Amino acid sequence: MASVIAAIADAVVTELNAQTWVESFTAVRRNLLDLEHHTDLDSLTVVVVPRIRERQVEDRSTNRITYTVDVGVLQRIDAATATTANTATDPLFELVEDIDDHFDGQLPGYSTAWSAGSEFLVDLAELQERHRFVGVLSLSFRVLSAR
Question: Are 50 and 9 in contact (CB under 8 A)?
């Protein structure tokens, strides 16, 4: 049986691939967002990585477990516009915001997991030095379980 965090990551991948987004992609799950091995970023790459499991006591009989998965949005940007034109990166920012908004509530495919928050960051050094958009959206989901 797969771990809960892996099952949640798989549910995120399934849901991402079931939707129509502003940019076209096929999401995959990996256990590591390894930028050195993502050499072909001419097309949009979306990788879901299970990352954090945090357990807290809810009450005497229940644990509140928060699982965080990262959604990596990766794409090479034309060197001439990577640091000077917003037109290359604005659609990628829009995509990440749309994904974030989509996962606000119950997680389709894992009915006991509910959105517990999110955080988004862009690796500006990757954009400036390697002309690659590397955005990571961390999605947290809360699950209550018996102790």
Answer: yes
CA atoms within 13 A on the CB side of 97: 6
Rounded distance, CA 14 to CA 4, Å? 15
Task: Indicate yes or no: pTM above 0.85.
Answer: yes
Q: How far is CA 28 from the centre of its chain?
A: 10
Closest CA to 89 of 63, 123, 59, 64: 123
DSSP 95-142: HHHHHHHHTSSEETTEEEEEEEEEEEEE-HHIIIII-EEEEEEEEEEE
Which strand (E) or helix (H) includes residue 10? helix 4-18
CB 88 within 8 A of CB 81: yes
What's the DSSP call for residue 1? Answer: -
**Domain 4-146 maps to which CATH number in 1.10.260, 3.30.2000, 3.90.550, 2.60.40?**
3.30.2000
Residues in the chain where the model's pLDDT stays below 70? 1, 36-39, 81-85
